[in-house]
Amino acid sequence: MDEVLTAAQIETQFESEWVLIEDPQTDEALEVRRGKVRWHSKDRDEVYRKAVEFRPSRFAILYTGKIPKDAAVVL
Known about the structure:
Blueprint lengths: L3 E3 H7 L4 E9 L5 E10 L2 H11 L4 E5 L12
Antiparallel strand pairs: 1-3, 2-3, 2-4
């Protein structure tokens, strides 16, 4: 995909998936606002493998689903 999508469009098109975004445009808090989707999958590891394969100079990986309440998030 070469089209730049907004974060809202990405969340709508790729619901509950991991998304590799090349050249993300971010706000002051470094939240992704838009970018070019390079790969998407329900399998997180597949998206990370594609990031290694493509080697984009700048990228972000988003998860567009809901995080379960009993899950721990490490930043």
